[in-house]
C-alpha cells in the first residue's frame, strides 16, 4: 500500500516513522519543509505541495492543527482533492469539528473517494510507541479496508458511526481529559499548600480511586518542571472551544466544560500556549504563591548549615553620573545566600555602596529581573561578597526564588555534591 501523509508535527512525524518501520511506502508533505528531513532520511519521499501527495498513492492521511488547515490541505486551491482518483481513501486524524468532517466527506464522495474522520487518543508518547487508539467515522467498509494501516500505528480502532462521528467522539473525549487534568491539579494544589510532598501525594493518587491517565502521565512532568509539549495547552483549548460549539448546538449546559475552557483561556493569556497542557498548573501556583515541585532534601540541609548556593547570575550595574543620567555595564556573579530581606552575591567585579544592580537569573528559573541595592561589602579571598537589599519584591517572586534554589541541584546536575 502506498501512503501519503500530510502534517509532520508532534504527532504526525512519529506516525510516519512507524509506517516506514512497518515497511510502508510513504510520501510526505509539510508546510515547513525542513521538518521532512528526518523521515526522508528513513526512506520517505518529500513533495512540495499537498496535491502531489494524492498522486500515485492509495491512502492519504492528514494530522493537522485545526479546521482551517485541514480544509486548506484537502479542499483548497492546491489541496489533494485536485489530485484524487476514484477508489482512494482519505483519513483525517486531526481534531476538528464534526461539521467540517461532514463537509469534506460530501466533497470527496462526489469523486468516489472515501473519507474517514479518525482522530486519535494518546499524545506524543503513544504516537512514538505506536499505541494510538482511533475513533473513526465514515463508511464501515472503508474503515475495514484500512484496518491493517491503523494497526501499523496504533493498537485499536473503534468504529463510532457515520461521517462526523469520530470527530464528535474526540471532542467528548478531550472534554473528559481536560476536566480530569484540572481535577488532578486542584487536588495536587491542596496537598502542596498543606505542606505535603507532591511526589508522595501523586503516589497516593495513583494507588487510589482518584487515579487517572492524566495523573499517571502528567504528575511527574509537573513536579519536575517539564512543560515540553506532548499535547499543547493551546491545542487543548482549541478542542474545548470546539466541544463548546458542539454542546451549544444541542443546547446542553456543560458547567465543567465551560469552567475548563475558562481556565485554559487564562493559561493561554499568560503565555503558556506552546507548553504542554500540564503547564496550566502554573496558574494555580500563582494563586497559591507556591510551586508544585519535587522536593530536594539537599535544600533543607543547605538552609540549616548555611552552605553557599553558587547559582550563576548576570548583573546589570547602574551608577548615577549626574542628575538625569547614569552609566551601566553587565557583569557575572553568583548567588551565595538568601535571607529574609535580601541576598548575598559573590563577584570578582568591584562595586560601591548604595549602587543599584539588576539581577538576572538563568533562563530556566523563569524569574523576572530583580532590582537590589548594595548595602554591605566583604572581601572574600580576592572576590567580593555583596549584601544586597531587594527592592519591591513581590511575595510570589520570592517564593519562586526559593523553589528555584530547591530544584537547582537537579537542573545543574550537582545534586550529589550539595547533599553529601
TrEMBL record:
Annotated 6-phosphogluconate dehydrogenase NADP-binding domain residues: 2-161
Domain of life: Bacteria
Positions of the 3-hydroxyisobutyrate dehydrogenase-like NAD-binding domain: 164-283
Pfam families (UniProt xref): NAD_binding_11, NAD_binding_2, PilZ
Gene3D superfamilies the UniProt entry points to: N-(1-d-carboxylethyl)-l-norvaline Dehydrogenase, domain 2 (1.10.1040.10), NAD(P)-binding Rossmann-like Domain (3.40.50.720), predicted glycosyltransferase like domains (2.40.10.220)
SUPFAM superfamilies: 6-phosphogluconate dehydrogenase C-terminal domain-like (SSF48179), NAD(P)-binding Rossmann-fold domains (SSF51735), PilZ domain-like (SSF141371)
Domain PilZ: 300-405
Membership in a protein family: Belongs to the HIBADH-related family.
Protein name, as recorded: NAD(P)-binding domain-containing protein
Amino acid at each position: 500500500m502506498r501512503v501519503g501523509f500530510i502534517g509532520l508535527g508532534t504527532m504526525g512525524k512519529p506516525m510516519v516513522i512507524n509506517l516506514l518501520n512497518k515497511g510502508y511506502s510513504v510520501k510526505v508533505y509539510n508546510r515547513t519543509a525542513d521538518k521532512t528531513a528526518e523521515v526522508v532520511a528513513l526512506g520517505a519521499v518529500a513533495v512540495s505541495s499537498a496535491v502531489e501527495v494524492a498522486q500515485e498513492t492509495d491512502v492519504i492521511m492528514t494530522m493537522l492543527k485545526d479546521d482551517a488547515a485541514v480544509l486548506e490541505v484537502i479542499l483548497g486551491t492546491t489541496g489533494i482533492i485536485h489530485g484524487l482518483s476514484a477508489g482512494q481513501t482519505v483519513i483525517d486524524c486531526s481534531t476538528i469539528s464534526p461539521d467540517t468532517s461532514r463537509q469534506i466527506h460530501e466533497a470527496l464522495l462526489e469523486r468516489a473517494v472515501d473519507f474517514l474522520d479518525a482522530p486519535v487518543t494518546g499524545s506524543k508518547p503513544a504516537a512514538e510507541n505506536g499505541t494510538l487508539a482511533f475513533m473513526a467515522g465514515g463508511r464501515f467498509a472503508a474503515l475495514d479496508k484500512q484496518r491493517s494501516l491503523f494497526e501499523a500505528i496504533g493498537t485499536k480502532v473503534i468504529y463510532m458511526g457515520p461521517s462526523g462521528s469520530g470527530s464528535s467522539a474526540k471532542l467528548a473525549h478531550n472534554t473528559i481529559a481536560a476536566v480530569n487534568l484540572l481535577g488532578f491539579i486542584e487536588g495536587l494544589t491542596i496537598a502542596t499548600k498543606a505542606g505535603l510532598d507532591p511526589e508522595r501525594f501523586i503516589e497516593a493518587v495513583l494507588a487510589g480511586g482518584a487515579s487517572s491517565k492524566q495523573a499517571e502521565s502528567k504528575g511527574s512532568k509537573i513536579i519536575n518542571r517539564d512543560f515540553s509539549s506532548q499535547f499543547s495547552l493551546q491545542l487543548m483549548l482549541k478542542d474545548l472551544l470546539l466541544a463548546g460549539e458542539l454542546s451549544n448546538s444541542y443546547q446542553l449546559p456543560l458547567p465543567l466544560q465551560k469552567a475548563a475552557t475558562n481556565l485554559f483561556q487564562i493559561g493561554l493569556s499568560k503565555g503558556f500556549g506552546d507548553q504542554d497542557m500540564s503547564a496550566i498548573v502554573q496558574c494555580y501556583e500563582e494563586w497559591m504563591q507556591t510551586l508544585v515541585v519535587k522536593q530536594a532534601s539537599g535544600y533543607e540541609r543547605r538552609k540549616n548549615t548555611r552552605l553557599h548556593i553558587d547559582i550563576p547570575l548576570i548583573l546589570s550595574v547602574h551608577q548615577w553620573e549626574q542628575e538625569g543620567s547614569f552609566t551601566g555595564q553587565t557583569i557575572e556573579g553568583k548567588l551565595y545566600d538568601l535571607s529574609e530581606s535580601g541576598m548575598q552575591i559573590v563577584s570578582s567585579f568591584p562595586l560601591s555602596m548604595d549602587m543599584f544592580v539588576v539581577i538576572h537569573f538563568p533562563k530556566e528559573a523563569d524569574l523576572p529581573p530583580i532590582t537590589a541595592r548594595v548595602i554591605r561589602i566583604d572581601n572574600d579571598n580576592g572576590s567580593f561578597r555583596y549584601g544586597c537589599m531587594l527592592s519591591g519584591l513581590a511575595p510570589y517572586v520570592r517564593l519562586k526564588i526559593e523553589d528555584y534554589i530547591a530544584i537547582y541541584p537537579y537542573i545543574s546536575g550537582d545534586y550529589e555534591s550539595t547533599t553529601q
